[in-house]
Amino acid sequence: MKNFLFELREGLLIAFRSIRANKVRSILTTLGIVIGVTSVVLMSTAIKGIDNAFQTGVASLGSDNLYIDKWEWFNNDIPWWELRNRKNLTLDDYKKYKELAKLPLAVAPTVWNFNNVKFKDRVVEGLIIQGTTSDYIQTTNLTFSEGRFFNELESNGGRNVIVLGSEVAKKLFPIGYAIGQEVKIRGHKFKVVGVLAEQGSWVMGNFNPDKQVFVPVQNIFKYLQSENLRSITINVRAKNSKMVEATKEEAIGIMRKIRGLSYNQENDFSINQQEGLLNTINQTVGVIQIAGLFITGLSLFVGAIGIMNIMFVSVKERTKEIGIRKAIGAKRRAILGQFITESAVICMIGGFIGLIFAIVLSLIINQFLPTSVQVDALVLAIVISIATGVISGFAPAYTAAKLDPVEALRYE
Amino acid sequence: MNIITIEHIAKIYQVGSEEVHALADVSLKIDKGEYVAIMGPSGSGKSTLMNILGCLDTPTHGIYNFNGVNVSEMNDNELAKIRNKEIGFVFQTFNLLARSDALHNVELPLIYAGVPSSERKERAMEALSHVGLADRMHHKPNELSGGQRQRVAIARALVTRPSIILADEPTGNLDTKTGEDIMALFNEIYEQGNTIILVTHEEYIAEHAERILRIRDGLIEKDEQVKNRYIPKKNGASKI
Ligand SMILES: Nc1ncnc2c1ncn2[C@@H]1O[C@H](COP(=O)(O)OP(=O)(O)O)[C@@H](O)[C@H]1O
Ligand SMILES: [Mg+2]
C-alpha cells in the first residue's frame, strides 16, 4: 500500500513531466478527449433538458384530463384507416355527454381551425383558432397575464370575443394593451378579452397554447368552417386523480350509448390521456438517448484510440527509461501503473477542459433550447475521462511492463 | 562468506537458426568485500555475465546462488526486488533519467523500495555528498559533465546500501583523467567494505581490482589475484 502510493506519486510526477516535455503532442492528443467528453456531457445535458421540457410541456395538459376524440392520439394499435372511418364527434355528442355525465369537474368541446389573425397591419399566419366554451378554462391549468377567459354569457351567446396565447399577443401587440382591441379573422372582428401567460409547452408544437387563440365555438362554424369538416374533441377534467379511472369508465358507457353502439360493436371513439403522451415521449426520449450516447460514445472512442496510439509511441520512445527503472528495481506493476497514470492524467485534463467547454456551450445553447446542466455532469465527465485513460492506456502500459530489462537498456 | 556462487552457467541466444553461446560454462565464487574485475575482449561475454550476476537476466542453464538464495528460478518481480535491495548498477552510458535532476535520479531506487519521502531525500543527499556532488543536486544530466553523471550513477547505486556494486565499463565513456577519478571513487567504496564487480576490457583498469577473472568466448580463462594492485590516489573530489 505504501509502495503503491509512492509509485502513484512518482507516476503522477512522470506524467506531468512528460506532458510538459511534449506540449504540442499532449495538446493534440488531449483534443480528442476534450471533444469526446464535451459531446458526452453536452449530449446528456441536452437529453435531460429535452426530457424536462417534455415533462413540463405534458404537465400543462393536466394529469386529470381525458380527451374524448375520434382519433387515438398516442396509440398505433388501431389501424389509421379504421380511425378515419369512425363517425365524427359532433357538438350534439358533446351536449348529450355533458348532460349525462355525473363525475366530471368540467366538460368543454374544442374544435380547431387554421387561420390568420390580423391587427391593423400586423398578421399572424396559420395559427390554430380553438373554438370552445367558457367551461374550457376549468379543464386546463391556463393562467392569464391580462384579462380573463370569455364568460358563460359570451360563450352561450357566441359573441365575437377572443383570448390570445402569449406568443400571438406578443406578435400582434408588441407593446401590450391588447385588452379591448379588435382583431380580425377572415375579416370578422373579435374583441380581445384576455391574454394568456406564457405556458412554455413548446413540445406540443402548434398545440402549444402560447401559439393559439380561443373563441366561442359557434364562431368557428359561423365564420370559418362547416360543422362537419372536423370532428370535435370533448375535454373532460376529473374531480381529482383518483376519479380519473371512474370518469373514464363512465365516459365510455355514455359515449357508447350516444353513438348507439350495440354490445358487440367496438368503441368508435377514443379516450385519450396525458399518460399516453408520456409513454410516447418516454419512448422518444429513450431513442434519442440511445442514439445520442452512441454517437458521443463514438467520438470518445476515437479520442481513446488517439490516446492509445500516443501511449504506444511514448512507450517506444522511453524504452531505455523503462530499462533503467527496471534495472534499479521497478516491478512490472510499477511500470504498468506509471503508464496508466500518465494516460489517465492526459485524459483527465482533457475531461476537465471538455467539461468547461460543455458548460460554456450549454449556457449558450440554453438561449435557444432548454438545456439543464446537471451537477452529476461533473462526475460523469471526470469518471468517463479517467476510465478512458485507464482503458486506452492499459495495452501500451502492459507492453512497457513486460519489456525485458536487458533488451530495454540496450535500446537506443 | 560467499555472496555469489554460480555453477556451470550458460547463456545461449538463438539468432536465426544459429545458437550463440554468449556464456558457455562458467562457475565462480565471489566473497563479501571482494573487488573483482571481469576482463576480456569485446564480445567475450562480460556484459552477459554481469547481467546474470545483476539479476537483470537469467541463465539458460546452471545455478546462481545469491546470498544463499537460488535466484536462477525466480520470476520477474522477485528479481526486481533483489535488484532493488541488493544490487547497485553502474553502466558505461550512465543510464540516468534525462528529465530528472540528480537528486531525483538518486532517489529513484528508494521510491521503488517504498522509503518515505523525507528519509529518501536525506539518504539521496547523503549519497550525492559522498560522491562529491553536494552542490549539483538539482542539475539535470545534460547540465553535468560525463564524470559528474557517472558520479550521480554511483550515488544511485550506493543509496540502497546494496550487497554488491556491478559496474560495466564505467570509464568507457570518460577521458583518462576523469576515468581515474571514478576509479579512485570505486577504490574508496571498496575500502569502506563494499563488494565490487567491475567489467572492463582495459588491463590497467582491471588492475585496480584485487582479483581478475579473464574471460574469452564465454569461458573463464584465468582467475588470478592481482599482486600489485593499482591504488589510485584520492583526488579530493569525494568526501567521506
Ligand atoms: N540479445 C542477444 N542476442 C543475441 N546475441 C547476443 C545477445 N546479447 C549478446 N549476444 C552475443 O553474446 C556475445 C557476448 O556479448 P556481451 O556479453 O555483450 O560481450 P561483451 O560485453 O564482453 O562485449 C556476443 O557475441 C554477442 O553478440
Ligand atoms: Mg559489454
TrEMBL record, chain A:
Transmembrane region(s): 27-47, 290-313, 334-365, 377-401
Keywords: Cell membrane, Membrane, Transmembrane, Transmembrane helix
Membrane topology per record: Multi-pass membrane protein
Primary location recorded for the protein, binned into one broad class: membrane
Subcellular location, record wording: Cell membrane
Domain MacB-like periplasmic core: 26-251
Pfam families attached to this UniProt entry: FtsX (PF02687), MacB_PCD (PF12704)
Keyword Transmembrane helix found: yes
InterPro entries per the UniProt record, alphabetical: ABC3_permease_C, MacB_PCD, Macrolide_Exporter_MacB
Domain ABC3 transporter permease C-terminal: 294-405
Family: Belongs to the ABC-4 integral membrane protein family.
Name the UniProt record assigns to this protein: ABC transporter permease
TrEMBL record, chain B:
Family that this chain belongs to: Belongs to the ABC transporter superfamily. Macrolide exporter (TC 3.A.1.122) family.
Gene3D superfamilies: P-loop containing nucleotide triphosphate hydrolases
Domain ABC transporter: 4-240
Pfam families: ABC_tran
One MF term in the entry's GO annotations: ATP binding
Organism: Stygiobacter electus
InterPro entries (UniProt xref): AAA+_ATPase, ABC_transporter-like_ATP-bd, ABC_transporter-like_CS, MacB-like_ATP-bd, P-loop_NTPase
Keywords for this protein: ATP-binding, Nucleotide-binding, Transport
Superkingdom of this protein's organism: Bacteria
Protein name: ABC transporter ATP-binding protein
GO terms under cellular component: membrane protein complex
